[in-house]
Amino acid sequence: MANRYKKNLAAIARSNPTIEYAGMEEIAVLEEYIKKEDGYIKFAKDKQWYCLCSKNTLAEAEFYMKDLEETRDYLLVVFGAGNATLLRRLHQKTTDATKIIVIEPNRAVLKYVMIHDDLTSFVGDGKMVVLSGEAALIEQMLAYYVNQEWDNLAKNVRVISLNNYHVYAAERHRYVKYLLSSIDSKLKLLGTSLEDNMNGLDNLYKNIDECISTNSVEEIRDKYQGYPAIIVAAGPSLDKNIHLLKEAEGKALIIACDASYTACKQQGVSPDAVASIERDYPTYQYYYKDRTFDEDLVLLGPAVLWPDIYTEFPGKKLLMAKNNEGMEEWWSSNFENMVFLPQGSSCANVAFAVARYAGCSPIILIGQDLAYTDEKKHSAVTHTEFEGDNVPDVEEENPLMRWTKGIDGTMVKTDIYYDLFRSYFERNIEVYGYHVIDATEGGALIKGTEIMTFREAIDTYCTRPLEKRLYYHLKDIKKSNKEYIEIYDNVLKSADKLSKDLEDIRQKAISHYNKVRKYNGFDFANASEQQLIQVVLDMTAANEIVDYIIEEKKQVLTYYQQNIKQTIIFVKEIGNDLTSQNVERNFKLQVHLMRLVEATSLVVEKHLGELRQFIEEKKRQREQEGDK
Fold this sequence. Notes:
Blueprint (H helix, E strand, L loop, with lengths): L1 H13 L19 E4 L2 E6 L2 E4 L5 H9 L9 E5 L4 H10 L5 E5 L3 H10 L11 E4 L3 H12 L10 E5 L7 H21 L4 H13 L1 H6 L15 E4 L5 H4 L3 H4 L4 E5 L3 H6 L6 E3 L5 H7 L10 E5 L4 H6 L3 E5 L5 H7 L14 H11 L5 E4 L34 E5 L5 E5 H17 L3 E3 L11 E2 L2 H8 L19 H36 L12 H11 L1 H12 L8 H14 L5 H46 L3
Parallel strand pairs: 4-5, 4-7, 5-6, 8-9, 8-13, 9-10, 10-11, 11-12, 13-16, 16-17
Antiparallel strand pairs: 1-2, 2-3, 14-15
Helix pairs in contact: 1-4, 2-3, 5-6, 7-22, 18-20, 18-22, 19-22, 21-22
């Protein structure tokens, strides 16, 4: 039995690189936790005994599986590992592309199963994984699997729970919600519309001079070790404690979100930096246009900000790459000071990324409600007249609205975007163990943070003066016209290569569409099985095109990935049965995707043409000026 246990442990651990299963040795399978009685295996929960599974484990397994289609690819969440026959049958009877996550909240049960059943034939091969232990680590692993493309099965998630595991209903709800939230977050991070992506590309090339002359975050790496940072967000609760911020000035690295900078100045506080992330004109209009900024203020943000923000800002700038893949990775690779930093999706996330890179600890959050505290969107001192009423649309029928636990334990209203911002903090805290203090004094609970009043945080951590402001850690950057021209030429050459890639992809999509267009108007309903098979065979070339974009043309994948991902998800939802209805739906999705690929290629190439014109004109101007 000991040998079986060790083999099972090794198999489980193979698929769970961040969960420490050695601790299983410390769990004793004693009668107080689990026992066999009257032919039943029973487990204890809150001093009550429950049957783990029926005597006929095979019949029970078939009952749990009766609604599953044998040919459909699923993402199965099995709550409870107590019926090893069920796990084995799920592995055997589901498709190879199905993914199975087994979550066992009772480690005594898991150890019992590992001692008495051989799991090695179906655990640890990448199809089935077993999770147990601390909730934070289980959630971490759920996010890990979502990032392994398991989100392709987003519309085929099914939950199977052992009968008496109703006693773990709260845990089940938590993990399933976290899994679905992780999938939702990943899909949002793929980007929104093609138009939005094109706006980002336009901003990138219009910011080319700023990208060339930017300071680098490497210049401030670990420069503030031993000092706290204060991130000033614009949530409704900021009104409660911003009056205390002056006491911390000069004793903490203070980074304001762009919406809260004016509020800081109203308190007589000069932040070290202001963080921004939105790429559209309203952000410039609300927070930068016709505003006065300190000369020794540093602007933090990705390279895709609205160009006027960078050109009109008087202080030094830290432009960072927001992604280390796709178009932004291609763009940043042309500039020596453009360093990739995982920045999340909000200004406060950007500020957090820079603060931790600078070595700050703890990081203190104020105004970071991430919820609609007192039915408001923003602090009264940060809300602008441009934004209309300071009242969110949080009616129950709003599909964006969510409820989440507040810092006081009550449920508070939030939305999917605030959830996304909060998950960035929570994952950084979980994975890296950063010391983060939530001194907001309201709003949503950010798991892993230490809750304090701002008064307590200042008195405890803001106790000694900084050596110097952030601005003075940064070099004075001056480039010659010759250096600008050299970089212009490099960008133009790499843009030409991208254009060739786009044309290559477009031609492949056109060729495939021409091959399958004969099925427009095809009578799928009355087609024979052999005819349906031929349609499927003719459509397989589309998979090769998708793989080609994903594997070989990653620099332009950004512009296709949302359409590709959503198509894959819908195809998975259709299922794998060879029916006329399934083949017809698959065909229509595929034709639609090829048309989108062709149209996308043309749109991106148009914007690359505008990029060339813009940079060539800048090059001509600098050539006329000579070397300066």
